[in-house]
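User: Sequence in, structure out. Go.
Assistant: Echoing your sequence, followed by the structure tokens.
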Amino acid sequence: LQQTFCDNVNNYTKTSCTTLLHTPASLNMSNKYEIKPYASDSDDSGDEDADIDVDKLEPLEAGPGEHKLQYTYCLWFGKKGSHRAAEYDKSLHFVGRCASVEQWWSLYCHLIKPTSLKPYRRLHLFKSGIKPMWEDPSNSKGGKWVIRLKKSKIDRAWENVCMAMLGEQFLVGSEICGVVLCTQYPEDVLSVWNRTATDTVSTNRIRDTLRRILNLPQSQHIEYKPHGDSLKFVPA
């Protein structure tokens, strides 16, 4: 699957992605959040509007002739805010989802680059059925590898980590939950979330894969943070 995904990705250059921008019928997206906060990243991101109930969406399938992914993934957008679960949940906005290589590129090419986002914006690409929150049952006993990167490297790093997850390059089965990009200053932060913080075999394999796909030197610091440590400080 990994090699098949990589081969298929190579067939979808930026030129072909631009073509996909003109085929809205092929998109499985919320047009509201595709255009409003993600194309312009305005401070008015539509927080006051009703959002999509992802749990009520029909299952997504790969289209005829498309290259199916092992899992369906959902993309979310958010801004830094309260750590309270209810308030944080409201700050998350569903962008779209993908079940095939073609659907992923169709979705990805509608997004502005991370370097064009304002500070303290977040992009979350997670497996369908898992919300990008510590409190989600799939995340509560897990953790995340955290990498700080210069802004000059974040666009390519985000793309590479997303493709590695979609193509099952981490080789840890269902352990991977999703990836998160957080724009900060002066550096940005990438993190990969997994289900089981105590599974050292999987967590070490994720770390080593991150170093490989991002071509990180051994001197580059990567930190693992169990979600349980963060949950201790969440306000009641």
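User: And one key feature?
Assistant: Helices lie at 2-10, 14-20, 31-40, 85-91, 101-108, 151-166, 200-213, 227-231.
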